[in-house]
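Curious: can you check?
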Amino acid sequence: MSDLKQHDLWLTDDNFAAIVIREPLVPVDGPDGVFFPATYAAAEDKKVFPGGYNIDPPTGDQNVCLVDSVGSQANRIEPLFAKPDYAELIPQILIQAGEKAVNLVEAGHRAGDAVVRCTPLQKTFQDAFKAVLQGDSLPMAKVAPTSLVFGVWDSRDTQAKLPRLIASTIRAFDVMRLTRSAQFNPAVDYIGLGLLEDTTDAKERKAYSERGFIHVPATGSHGGVIAKSGVRRDVTFSLAALRLLSAGDDAQQTLALRRYVLGLTLVALTAPPQTYLRQGCNLVPDLDHPRTVTLVSADGTRSEVEIKHDQALNYAKSAAKTFGVGESKTVQFDPALTKKDLSGEGNTKPTRKGKAKAAEGKGNA
């Protein structure tokens, strides 16, 4: 049994601002290895961002490249709480959507996701968001506690917002961009052997290409990067934001709530991160440059702290037992609620787009 009082100063004393982790990473094939950052769609105005790797500034050698965003990192970490060793820490909310079962920790918008609004739990989550607006995070902690850890915005209904307590980002520094080219050669020369009719029609040639019947060159596509000044994972856990959570005016429940959320956050903070981010991007800790864990005070002073994962897990289990984990449930996705949600006929408010459409309809009446 872990001592629940050991971190209480973090939960009650405004002198503590955050815990910051800086973890140097390295591609699996070495510091000079090529790896592939995330790619992003072009902005509406391609002069602002033409698409591809997010590198600032876009030209020059001294730059910063976004390898994995805050949102992407959160979506990689949160499903941890559905695994056997951690599942007992939170209520397991499963949404059966056709043949697919979706765990709430896998939903991109967490408690504010459309997959939740279109289930019998719609009002439960709406009431939890309304309670948040009134300064009471207790109902949310009972149904979707990881939404308190990783942040949530009920943008389609109550507009309630909860900030991320933990923000993790991976960046590479001073990257050299590479390109790659390829050539597809069909198994046989279909046209040359008379197996396929030759054509100059652009639409037909495109169809031939798409179906793999003719040679297809691919040149100058993204070929990854080499980070000349290294790769780093930066994680910030805001203790100041955690202290904004309360259970209304109940001081005892507020402390239990904060201990519970602290335990979940420490588990997320210390869990071994995913190394495989995407094809061509497999990053591991740089053993030549160990990570640092720093407790940052409100006055700017910094001190090294050690938080081991097994200790964090024991604390989280004790805090969860004392707090009382919410009930796990499996509910059905209801297509009928989808139609009501889109039209604004359900219990939720219509989206901005829906309001605009409704206003347009009134104007044409």
